[in-house]
Amino acid sequence: MAEGSHERWGSQTEYLLSCLGYAVGIGNIWRFPYLCYRNGGGAFLIPYFLTLVICGIPLVYLETTLGQFASAGCISVFNINPLFKGAGYAVVVLNIIAIIYFAAIMSYPLLYIFHSFTTPLPWQSCGNSWNTNRCTEINSNSTVNATIGLMRTPEDEFFHIRLLQASPSIHEIGGIVWPVLWCNLICWLLVYLCICNGVKSVGKIVYFTVLFPYVVLFALFVRGVTLPGAIQGILYFILPDWTQLKKPKVWADAATQIFYSLGPGWGGLVSMASFNKFHYNNLRSSIIIPIVNSGTSVWAGFVVFSVLGFAADRAGVPVDQVATAGPGLAFVTYPAAVSLMPAPNFWAVTFFVMLFFLGIDTMFVTIEAVIAGLLDEYPKLRHRRKLITLLTCVALFGISIICNTKGGLHVIGLLDAHVAIACVPTVCAMEIIAAVYTYGQDKMSVDVLFMTGRPLRRFWLFLWRYILPVILSRVRENCRANSKWGPAENEVRLRWETFRNKTSRDLPLLPTNYGP
């Protein structure tokens, strides 16, 4: 049990908003809509919401129960079985890796906000100093070139050439891209000012940073559905393809999306719950958080695909030629669609401000998970919390500079796809083994009854003991299947093998997949 000096939320609303800010992030905007469209449209919602019930909600409930009862962060929560404490330190390492590249990603919306005040928008047309002779503006005549790979849109060249000055491969890291570095520094300054006082400051700030994106999302929704061609995009998003349900990968993708959207295994939920009052009934919030998160994903799908339908209508191409996922959707495809709207500057600023606030909340909780975990493990450092927070932010900023270089986008892709997320299912499995199997479900039932005054239903114990391990193993396999070698990783492998051939020692080859 943590010492009595452990911080507490000012109200349970602060806890709920902080967890929502942590769970609802940029992945809801740039990953789920495309994943839904690719895996059968409306039919994908069946496995998605089914895995929400049998996987997402139980995992959130387990982590918040452990954190609240122990009043401890991601390391000390494993005091229930010290043999598994290494998993707690693994969570800290994973968060450090994730925040290194995530902070760099959050500098991109700031850059776009700055450039969105330029009239016309700098990515709106070719003919700029950074454009190449392959630059082609979107219109009905550009599709032939696009199919044979000769075309690059002005939005694509603005993002990769003008903003990031991206190098061709990961082994060409290049120099620092200074505008990206300054925006990264601004992000870290904001984060430090917001979390330096712990949950006392975070709890007040989330009232704005969590609720404001929903106001913007509503405005974008209203604007999107009123655009010509919007219904075409929405139909691409929701029309069910029932045959997709026969594919195991669709079900695995649904479980994976639920898993990574809610954020179990990263320590954020454990840390946020540790600041609850001991006798708080956490079951209701553990249901609300996943439902609101999933509802936001579906809502964001309507927002994104209504605008993509408009862009496809203006360009005279099918929606599937403009539908993309990941950073390409947020920083290339969506800006292209916004540039076609009336008052494009206003909607560009609106979209990127929303994107920034969605991401900054995740940064708050991720860094707080690292700091809270360390302070709970070493309580003598609590009276120096501001200094520890400052040193942590400075150190993480310094490490993240590699992602602000010309090769930074390749580093981000490498860390995101092959280092961080591949290990999280293993951490969750460790939590289940430590809590349910070794600590014991009988002890957990007694603890929950003592903590909340309500018995722990056998339904939860059944899911934790039998269902979640199976789903976690499938999510882990799906991560490995998705972690194939791409151009950036092939560069790393090639250089490693070259190094190995030059040495006399019998060094092992890199595995065909990153991760455990």
Detailed description of the structure:
The protein has about 525 residues and is mostly helical. It has helices at about 10-25, 25-30, 30-40, 45-70, 85-115, 145, 155-165, 180-195, 200-210, 210-225, 230-240, 250-260, 270-275, 285-315, 325-340, 345-375, 385-400, 410-420, 425-450, 460-480, 485-500. The two termini are about 30 Å apart. It is found in: Membrane. Its main location: membrane. InterPro entries: Na/ntran_symport, SNS_sf. It is a multi-pass membrane protein.
Summarize the SSE layout with pairings.
Layout (H helix, E strand, L loop, with lengths): L11 H12 L3 H4 L1 H7 L6 H26 L14 H31 L27 H5 L6 H10 L14 H18 L3 H11 L1 H15 L4 H9 L9 H15 L5 H7 L8 H33 L11 H12 L5 H34 L7 H16 L7 H13 L3 H29 L5 H25 L4 H15 L15
Helix pairs in contact: 1-9, 1-13, 1-14, 1-16, 3-14, 4-12, 4-13, 4-14, 4-19, 4-20, 5-8, 5-16, 5-17, 5-18, 5-19, 7-15, 8-16, 8-17, 10-14, 10-16, 11-14, 12-20, 13-16, 14-15, 19-20
Protein name: Transporter
Membrane topology: Multi-pass membrane protein
Main location: membrane
Shape: globular
Gyration radius from CA atoms, angstroms: 23 Å
Mean pLDDT over all positions: 85
Order of helices and strands: HHHHHHHHHHHHHHHHHHHHH
Distance between the termini: 31 Å
Percentage beta strand: under 5%
